[in-house]
Amino acid sequence: MHLNPAFPHLTDFPFDKLRALLKGVDAPAHLKPIGMQIGEPRQATPQLIKDALIEGFSFLDKYPPALGPLALREAIARWLERRYGLPHVDEATEIIPALGTKESLFSLVQALTDRTKPNPLVVLPDPFYQVYEAAVLFSGARTHYISDWADAAKQPDFSNIAPQVWKDVQMLFVCSPDNPTGRVLTLETWKTIFDLSEQYGFIVLSDECYSEIYFEEGKGPIGALEAAHKLGRTRERLIVMGSLSKRSNAPGLRSGYVAGDAKRLKPFLMYRTFNGASMSGMVAHASIAAWKDEAHVVANRAVYSKIFRELTPKLASHIDVTIPDAAFYWWPDVSQFFGGDDTLFVREMYRATGVTALPGTYLGAKLPDGSNPGRGRVRFALVATYDECADAVERIRGFVDRV
Ligand SMILES: Cc1ncc(COP(=O)(O)O)c(C=O)c1O
C-alpha cells in the first residue's frame, strides 16, 4: 500500500494516549469528573456570534472564495491594527481567513516547504502543540526541537542551535502565549528570532491563538507583528496565525486568520484555492461580528482572571503552580511525585479525585538521548467554571497531601 511516509512516524494524538492511560481506571463514584485535560473553552459562545451565524445562512448557496470576503479581511486587519497598534495591515494582501490556527499551521507547512533543497528542516518548540510535528512530517521536511522550552520562567535560548542546522531551516514555529507553558516571548526574544530569520532566510510561523487570554486589562501580550513594528522590521518572512476559538469561546466555529508577509501569502492563497479550505460564508459572517466586538472578550478574560488569581495561591501551597504570563494553563513541575513519572501522577490523580489533566510527556518529543522535555510536568486547562476549578483544586490538594 502506498502511503505518505509520515504515517509510521506519527505518534498518537495526546488525548488518545490519555484515553489509553486511563482505560480501566475508575474515578471515585461519588465525585463528578472534572476534565482539565483539553484546552477547549467551556464558556458559552456569545449570542452575537450565534445570531450572525444564523443570518449567514443566506451564504450557503455560494462557493466561498479562498480569499474570504473583503468585509472579513477588513475586520481582521482593523482588529490587528487596534490590538497591536500597527499603522496599517493591508486586507488585500496581508490577510487570509483560515479555519482556525490548527488548519492554517498545518497547511502553511505543506504549501511553503521547499522540497528541492537537500535537507528541509523546521524548528519546533518542545514541549509543543503536537500538530506542528505532524505538519512537518507530512510536508516531507524534518523536525529540529528547541528543548529548553518547558520552563516558563526562562526565555528560550536559540543560541543552542548550531549554524549548520540553521542553514537548512526553512521555517521556525513559535507559540506565544505558549501552550503549555503560558510564556509570552519578550521583545528581545523577538529581536533574536528576526535576526536569525534574516541571517538564515527562514520563515517565522507565529501561533498566537492564545493572544487574548491574559489577566490584566490593557496589558495584552506582545504579538509578532507588533514586535516587528516596534523593532522597525518589515513583515518579510513573518507569518502570524490567530483564531476566534479561545478569544471568543467558539472552537466549533473553525475560524481564524493568517497575516503577514504578502509575498509568502500569495502562494499560500494559491495552495488554498486547490485544497478546499475556504471558510464558509456563514462562518465568515459570524466571524466579522466576533472580530468587531471586544466586550465579550473582556468579559471572557474576567472569568479566567478570577479563576487564576484566586485559585493559583490555593494550589501553590501544594504544587508549584504559578499564574502564567497568559493562556489558560497551569504547567507545574510534579517531578517530586511518583519518581518523576507524570503519566503516573495523572493516572493516580484521576483514580483518587476524578480530575483529569494531561501528562507533560504527551506534549514533548522524545529526544535522541531518550529524554522528553515535558516529563515531570502536568498540564491543567482551567476552562471549566470557577466552581468546578475550585472543586478540582480542593481535590488535588487532598491527593497531593496523601501521596
Ligand atoms: C498552540 C495551539 N495552536 C493551535 C491550536 C488550534 O486552535 P484553533 O481552534 O484555532 O485551530 C491550539 C488548540 O488548542 C493550540 O493549543
How would you characterize this protein structure?
The chain is α/β, with parallel strands linked by helices and 403 residues long. The protein is 40% helix and 12% strand. It has 14 helices and 12 strands. It has helices spanning 14-22, 47-55, 70-84, 101-112, 131-139, 163-166, 187-200, 224-230, 244-247, 262-275, 281-292, 295-316, 342-353, 386-402; strands at residues 34-35, 95-98, 121-125, 142-146, 169-175, 203-207, 238-243, 256-260, 329-330, 355-356, 358-359, 378-381. Helix 4 packs parallel to helix 5 (131-139). It is globular, with a radius of gyration of 21 Å. It binds pyridoxal-5'-phosphate.
Question: What's the short version?
Answer:
By secondary structure, the protein is an alpha/beta fold. Helix content is 40%, strand content 12%.
Question: What attributes characterize this protein structure?
Answer:
40% helix; 7-stranded mixed β-sheet; 12 strands; 14 helices; alpha/beta; binds pyridoxal-5'-phosphate; 403 residues; single chain; 3-stranded antiparallel β-sheet
